[in-house]
Amino acid sequence: MSIQMECSVQEDRSKLVILEGAKPQLNLDAALFALRNDQVVMIRNVSPENSDASIGAVARSLGLLDQLSVQSAYASIQGHRSNVSTHFMSVNKRMDYQFIPAHSEGQHSFNMQLACIYCHENSTDGGHSILMNTDSESNAWPRLRELVKCVDLGGRTVSPAEAIKARSLLQINIPEDVLRPDHEIVDELPVPVPGIRLYRALIAPRRCHSKILNRNVYVYWDSIASIDHTSADEYSRLLKTLGLLKTPPGGADLATLDNSHPRRIWSSGVTYREIFKSRINLPIDAGDLVIFNNLTWTHSASNWTPDSGSRRAVVAFA
Fold first, then answer.
1. Is residue 208 part of a domain?
2. What is the pLDDT of residues 141-190, one digit of tens each?
3. Count of alpha carbons within 13 angstroms of residue 222, beta-carbon side
4. Same structural domain, 103 and 150
5. Quick one: which of 53, 91, 95 has its CA closest to 75?
6. Is pTM, for the whole model, over 0.85?
7. E-only strand ranges, the chain
8. Alpha-carbon gap, residue 40 to 34, rounded angstroms
Protein backbone atom coordinates (compact mmCIF):
# COMPACT_ATOMS: atom_id res chain seq x y z
CA MET A 1 0.00 0.00 0.00
CA SER A 2 2.82 2.44 0.83
CA ILE A 3 4.46 1.87 -2.58
CA GLN A 4 1.17 2.54 -4.34
CA MET A 5 0.76 5.84 -2.50
CA GLU A 6 4.36 6.92 -3.20
CA CYS A 7 4.32 6.40 -6.97
CA SER A 8 0.67 7.17 -7.63
CA VAL A 9 -0.21 9.24 -10.70
CA GLN A 10 -3.99 9.26 -10.85
CA GLU A 11 -5.76 8.03 -13.97
CA ASP A 12 -8.10 10.56 -15.60
CA ARG A 13 -10.23 9.04 -18.36
CA SER A 14 -11.94 12.38 -18.92
CA LYS A 15 -8.78 13.40 -20.77
CA LEU A 16 -9.38 10.64 -23.36
CA VAL A 17 -11.67 11.19 -26.37
CA ILE A 18 -12.65 7.98 -28.18
CA LEU A 19 -13.85 8.15 -31.79
CA GLU A 20 -14.80 5.56 -34.39
CA GLY A 21 -12.86 5.33 -37.65
CA ALA A 22 -15.92 5.22 -39.91
CA LYS A 23 -16.51 9.01 -39.88
CA PRO A 24 -13.28 10.71 -41.04
CA GLN A 25 -14.52 14.32 -41.35
CA LEU A 26 -16.34 14.27 -38.01
CA ASN A 27 -13.28 12.63 -36.48
CA LEU A 28 -11.01 15.39 -37.77
CA ASP A 29 -13.15 18.15 -36.26
CA ALA A 30 -13.53 16.29 -32.96
CA ALA A 31 -9.82 15.43 -32.83
CA LEU A 32 -8.75 19.03 -33.36
CA PHE A 33 -11.16 20.23 -30.67
CA ALA A 34 -9.84 17.63 -28.22
CA LEU A 35 -6.17 18.39 -28.93
CA ARG A 36 -6.77 22.10 -28.39
CA ASN A 37 -8.23 21.16 -25.00
CA ASP A 38 -5.10 19.12 -24.19
CA GLN A 39 -6.90 15.80 -24.47
CA VAL A 40 -5.72 12.51 -25.97
CA VAL A 41 -7.57 11.23 -29.04
CA MET A 42 -8.08 7.52 -29.73
CA ILE A 43 -9.70 6.61 -33.05
CA ARG A 44 -10.72 2.96 -33.21
CA ASN A 45 -11.06 0.62 -36.18
CA VAL A 46 -8.74 2.59 -38.46
CA SER A 47 -7.26 0.62 -41.34
CA PRO A 48 -3.49 0.83 -41.94
CA GLU A 49 -4.21 2.64 -45.23
CA ASN A 50 -6.34 5.27 -43.50
CA SER A 51 -3.96 5.81 -40.59
CA ASP A 52 -1.60 7.86 -42.77
CA ALA A 53 -4.45 9.95 -44.16
CA SER A 54 -5.81 10.60 -40.66
CA ILE A 55 -2.58 11.82 -39.10
CA GLY A 56 -1.79 13.78 -42.26
CA ALA A 57 -5.14 15.59 -42.05
CA VAL A 58 -4.62 16.44 -38.37
CA ALA A 59 -1.08 17.70 -38.98
CA ARG A 60 -2.19 19.77 -41.97
CA SER A 61 -4.97 21.41 -39.96
CA LEU A 62 -2.50 22.32 -37.20
CA GLY A 63 0.10 23.69 -39.63
CA LEU A 64 2.46 20.80 -38.90
CA LEU A 65 2.42 18.83 -42.16
CA ASP A 66 5.94 19.86 -43.19
CA GLN A 67 7.28 18.78 -39.78
CA LEU A 68 5.49 15.45 -40.14
CA SER A 69 7.28 14.79 -43.43
CA VAL A 70 10.63 15.98 -42.08
CA GLN A 71 10.51 13.69 -39.04
CA SER A 72 9.68 10.66 -41.17
CA ALA A 73 12.61 11.38 -43.48
CA TYR A 74 14.97 12.15 -40.57
CA ALA A 75 14.27 8.81 -38.90
CA SER A 76 15.30 6.82 -41.95
CA ILE A 77 18.45 8.91 -42.44
CA GLN A 78 19.57 8.43 -38.83
CA GLY A 79 18.87 4.69 -39.02
CA HIS A 80 17.44 4.31 -35.48
CA ARG A 81 13.98 3.74 -36.95
CA SER A 82 12.72 2.52 -40.32
CA ASN A 83 9.90 3.94 -42.42
CA VAL A 84 6.76 1.82 -42.51
CA SER A 85 4.46 4.05 -44.58
CA THR A 86 4.23 7.66 -45.72
CA HIS A 87 4.23 9.13 -42.21
CA PHE A 88 4.73 6.22 -39.83
CA MET A 89 7.97 4.65 -38.66
CA SER A 90 9.00 1.73 -36.49
CA VAL A 91 9.26 1.99 -32.71
CA ASN A 92 12.54 1.66 -30.84
CA LYS A 93 13.90 -1.87 -30.66
CA ARG A 94 13.96 -3.59 -27.29
CA MET A 95 15.13 -6.81 -25.75
CA ASP A 96 12.83 -9.36 -24.08
CA TYR A 97 11.08 -7.99 -20.98
CA GLN A 98 12.25 -4.42 -21.60
CA PHE A 99 9.90 -1.48 -21.03
CA ILE A 100 10.04 2.05 -22.46
CA PRO A 101 9.73 4.65 -19.64
CA ALA A 102 7.74 7.88 -19.96
CA HIS A 103 9.14 10.59 -22.22
CA SER A 104 8.15 13.16 -24.82
CA GLU A 105 9.79 12.40 -28.14
CA GLY A 106 12.92 14.34 -29.05
CA GLN A 107 14.62 17.26 -27.38
CA HIS A 108 14.23 21.00 -26.94
CA SER A 109 16.00 21.90 -30.20
CA PHE A 110 13.72 19.61 -32.27
CA ASN A 111 10.52 20.99 -30.68
CA MET A 112 8.25 18.21 -31.98
CA GLN A 113 4.65 19.24 -31.32
CA LEU A 114 2.49 16.23 -32.23
CA ALA A 115 2.77 12.49 -31.56
CA CYS A 116 0.80 9.51 -32.84
CA ILE A 117 0.77 5.76 -32.22
CA TYR A 118 -0.92 3.24 -34.53
CA CYS A 119 -1.35 -0.40 -33.52
CA HIS A 120 -1.19 -3.15 -36.15
CA GLU A 121 -1.27 -5.96 -33.59
CA ASN A 122 -1.07 -6.50 -29.84
CA SER A 123 -1.77 -10.05 -28.74
CA THR A 124 0.67 -9.94 -25.81
CA ASP A 125 -0.11 -10.08 -22.09
CA GLY A 126 1.10 -6.46 -21.76
CA GLY A 127 2.37 -3.83 -24.14
CA HIS A 128 0.13 -1.09 -22.73
CA SER A 129 0.76 2.48 -23.83
CA ILE A 130 0.71 4.71 -20.76
CA LEU A 131 0.36 8.43 -21.43
CA MET A 132 1.00 11.01 -18.70
CA ASN A 133 0.03 14.67 -18.65
CA THR A 134 2.81 17.00 -17.48
CA ASP A 135 2.30 19.79 -14.96
CA SER A 136 4.11 22.88 -16.26
CA GLU A 137 3.36 24.77 -13.05
CA SER A 138 5.23 22.29 -10.84
CA ASN A 139 8.18 23.73 -8.92
CA ALA A 140 10.17 20.53 -9.59
CA TRP A 141 11.31 21.45 -13.12
CA PRO A 142 14.41 23.43 -12.06
CA ARG A 143 15.69 20.26 -10.35
CA LEU A 144 15.70 18.35 -13.66
CA ARG A 145 18.41 18.53 -16.31
CA GLU A 146 18.44 18.11 -20.07
CA LEU A 147 21.42 16.60 -21.88
CA VAL A 148 22.20 18.83 -24.85
CA LYS A 149 24.93 19.51 -27.35
CA CYS A 150 26.55 22.91 -26.96
CA VAL A 151 29.33 24.62 -28.84
CA ASP A 152 32.26 26.79 -27.79
CA LEU A 153 32.89 29.18 -30.69
CA GLY A 154 36.19 30.42 -29.25
CA GLY A 155 35.10 34.04 -29.56
CA ARG A 156 34.19 33.70 -33.25
CA THR A 157 31.16 35.34 -34.84
CA VAL A 158 29.17 32.85 -36.89
CA SER A 159 27.55 33.85 -40.20
CA PRO A 160 23.96 32.82 -41.01
CA ALA A 161 25.30 30.28 -43.51
CA GLU A 162 27.60 28.76 -40.86
CA ALA A 163 24.69 28.59 -38.39
CA ILE A 164 22.65 26.62 -40.93
CA LYS A 165 25.61 24.30 -41.51
CA ALA A 166 26.01 23.75 -37.76
CA ARG A 167 22.33 22.83 -37.45
CA SER A 168 22.62 20.36 -40.32
CA LEU A 169 25.91 18.74 -39.32
CA LEU A 170 25.82 19.00 -35.53
CA GLN A 171 22.09 19.29 -34.72
CA ILE A 172 22.65 22.52 -32.75
CA ASN A 173 21.09 25.97 -32.95
CA ILE A 174 23.34 29.02 -32.74
CA PRO A 175 23.26 31.18 -30.63
CA GLU A 176 20.85 29.18 -28.41
CA ASP A 177 23.25 26.25 -27.99
CA VAL A 178 26.44 28.22 -27.33
CA LEU A 179 28.27 27.06 -24.19
CA ARG A 180 27.49 29.16 -21.08
CA PRO A 181 29.06 29.25 -17.61
CA ASP A 182 26.03 27.55 -16.03
CA HIS A 183 26.31 24.51 -18.35
CA GLU A 184 27.67 21.38 -16.67
CA ILE A 185 29.94 19.71 -19.24
CA VAL A 186 29.66 15.92 -19.43
CA ASP A 187 32.14 15.19 -22.22
CA GLU A 188 33.59 16.55 -25.47
CA LEU A 189 32.51 15.31 -28.89
CA PRO A 190 34.46 15.14 -32.16
CA VAL A 191 33.48 17.90 -34.55
CA PRO A 192 34.05 18.19 -38.34
CA VAL A 193 34.01 22.00 -38.26
CA PRO A 194 37.43 23.66 -37.66
CA GLY A 195 37.79 26.28 -34.94
CA ILE A 196 34.99 25.22 -32.63
CA ARG A 197 34.60 22.70 -29.80
CA LEU A 198 31.49 20.62 -29.24
CA TYR A 199 30.34 19.27 -25.86
CA ARG A 200 27.51 17.38 -24.22
CA ALA A 201 26.29 19.27 -21.19
CA LEU A 202 23.54 19.24 -18.57
CA ILE A 203 21.34 22.33 -18.50
CA ALA A 204 18.14 23.35 -16.72
CA PRO A 205 14.91 22.67 -18.67
CA ARG A 206 13.51 25.49 -20.82
CA ARG A 207 9.91 26.11 -21.75
CA CYS A 208 8.77 25.49 -25.33
CA HIS A 209 5.87 27.09 -27.19
CA SER A 210 2.99 24.72 -27.90
CA LYS A 211 1.41 25.65 -31.23
CA ILE A 212 -1.59 23.47 -30.39
CA LEU A 213 -2.32 25.19 -27.06
CA ASN A 214 -0.73 28.57 -27.87
CA ARG A 215 1.19 28.75 -24.62
CA ASN A 216 4.66 27.99 -23.26
CA VAL A 217 5.12 24.72 -21.41
CA TYR A 218 7.80 22.60 -19.80
CA VAL A 219 8.40 19.32 -21.65
CA TYR A 220 9.66 16.01 -20.27
CA TRP A 221 11.85 15.43 -23.32
CA ASP A 222 13.60 12.14 -24.00
CA SER A 223 16.80 14.12 -23.45
CA ILE A 224 15.60 14.74 -19.86
CA ALA A 225 13.79 11.50 -19.03
CA SER A 226 16.25 9.01 -20.50
CA ILE A 227 19.36 10.30 -18.73
CA ASP A 228 17.79 10.25 -15.25
CA HIS A 229 18.00 7.11 -13.09
CA THR A 230 15.09 8.41 -11.00
CA SER A 231 12.83 8.25 -14.04
CA ALA A 232 13.49 4.52 -14.47
CA ASP A 233 12.87 3.91 -10.77
CA GLU A 234 9.57 5.79 -10.94
CA TYR A 235 8.37 3.98 -14.05
CA SER A 236 9.21 0.58 -12.60
CA ARG A 237 7.25 1.48 -9.44
CA LEU A 238 4.30 2.66 -11.51
CA LEU A 239 4.17 -0.61 -13.48
CA LYS A 240 4.34 -2.60 -10.25
CA THR A 241 1.52 -0.54 -8.78
CA LEU A 242 -0.65 -1.15 -11.86
CA GLY A 243 0.21 -4.87 -11.94
CA LEU A 244 1.78 -4.47 -15.38
CA LEU A 245 5.44 -5.29 -14.73
CA LYS A 246 6.51 -8.60 -16.30
CA THR A 247 9.73 -10.28 -15.21
CA PRO A 248 11.45 -13.48 -16.34
CA PRO A 249 11.56 -16.56 -14.07
CA GLY A 250 13.98 -15.72 -11.28
CA GLY A 251 13.40 -11.98 -11.71
CA ALA A 252 15.54 -9.27 -13.32
CA ASP A 253 17.22 -6.07 -12.15
CA LEU A 254 16.16 -2.63 -13.31
CA ALA A 255 19.16 -2.29 -15.62
CA THR A 256 17.92 -5.32 -17.59
CA LEU A 257 14.28 -4.16 -17.76
CA ASP A 258 14.95 -0.49 -18.60
CA ASN A 259 15.40 0.11 -22.34
CA SER A 260 17.16 3.43 -21.69
CA HIS A 261 19.53 2.23 -18.97
CA PRO A 262 22.78 2.69 -21.01
CA ARG A 263 21.95 6.39 -21.48
CA ARG A 264 21.36 7.27 -17.82
CA ILE A 265 24.06 9.38 -16.19
CA TRP A 266 22.61 11.00 -13.06
CA SER A 267 19.70 10.98 -10.58
CA SER A 268 17.41 13.98 -10.13
CA GLY A 269 15.29 12.69 -7.26
CA VAL A 270 12.19 14.14 -9.00
CA THR A 271 9.20 11.82 -8.65
CA TYR A 272 6.47 11.27 -11.22
CA ARG A 273 3.80 12.66 -8.92
CA GLU A 274 5.74 15.96 -8.82
CA ILE A 275 5.69 16.55 -12.60
CA PHE A 276 2.60 14.68 -13.86
CA LYS A 277 -1.02 15.70 -13.26
CA SER A 278 -2.65 12.50 -14.50
CA ARG A 279 -2.24 9.43 -16.69
CA ILE A 280 -4.18 7.32 -19.19
CA ASN A 281 -3.52 3.60 -19.47
CA LEU A 282 -4.22 2.35 -23.01
CA PRO A 283 -4.08 -1.41 -23.72
CA ILE A 284 -4.03 -0.65 -27.46
CA ASP A 285 -5.48 -3.11 -29.96
CA ALA A 286 -5.19 -3.55 -33.72
CA GLY A 287 -6.72 -0.58 -35.55
CA ASP A 288 -6.27 1.89 -32.65
CA LEU A 289 -4.87 5.29 -33.65
CA VAL A 290 -3.77 7.47 -30.71
CA ILE A 291 -2.96 11.17 -31.23
CA PHE A 292 -1.72 13.62 -28.58
CA ASN A 293 0.30 16.77 -27.91
CA ASN A 294 3.94 15.69 -27.69
CA LEU A 295 4.82 18.68 -25.50
CA THR A 296 2.24 18.11 -22.76
CA TRP A 297 1.86 14.31 -22.83
CA THR A 298 4.56 11.70 -22.45
CA HIS A 299 4.24 8.20 -23.89
CA SER A 300 5.63 4.92 -22.62
CA ALA A 301 5.14 1.19 -23.07
CA SER A 302 4.91 -1.54 -20.48
CA ASN A 303 6.70 -4.81 -21.14
CA TRP A 304 5.24 -8.28 -21.77
CA THR A 305 6.09 -11.95 -21.53
CA PRO A 306 8.00 -12.76 -24.75
CA ASP A 307 6.03 -15.89 -25.70
CA SER A 308 2.61 -14.36 -24.94
CA GLY A 309 1.99 -12.95 -28.44
CA SER A 310 3.12 -10.23 -30.84
CA ARG A 311 3.05 -6.45 -30.61
CA ARG A 312 3.44 -4.32 -33.75
CA ALA A 313 3.03 -0.60 -33.26
CA VAL A 314 4.27 2.32 -35.37
CA VAL A 315 4.67 6.00 -34.55
CA ALA A 316 4.59 9.39 -36.25
CA PHE A 317 5.79 12.79 -35.02
CA ALA A 318 5.51 16.36 -36.22
1. no
2. 999 999 999 999 888 888 888 788 777 777 888 888 899 999 999 999 99
3. 16
4. no
5. 91
6. yes
7. 16-20, 40-44, 89-90, 100-103, 114-122, 129-134, 146-152, 184-189, 197-203, 208-210, 215-217, 276-282, 289-293, 297-301, 311-317
8. 7
Residue 242: count of CB within 10 angstroms of its CB: 17
3-state secondary structure of 199: strand
101 and 8 housed in the same domain:
yes
Kindly state whether residues 65 and 13 are assigned to the same domain.
yes
Residue type, 298: T
d(CA 236, CA 282): 17
Range of the structural domain that residue 164 is part of: 146-203
Indicate the residue type of 178. Answer: V
The DSSP code sequence of 134-150 is E-TT-TTGGG--EEEEE
Q: φ, ψ for residue 263 (rounded to 5)? A: -95, -10
Judgement on whether residues 251 and 311 belong to the same structural domain of the protein: yes
Measured distance between the N- and C-terminal CA atoms of the chain, rounded to whole angstroms: 40
Q: Answer yes or no: do 307 and 253 share one domain.
A: yes
3-state secondary structure (DSSP) of residue 292: strand
Q: Which long-range contacts (CB under 8 A, 24 or more apart) does 178-187 make?
A: 178/150, 178/151, 178/152, 178/153, 179/150, 179/151, 179/152, 180/150, 183/150, 184/145, 186/147, 186/265
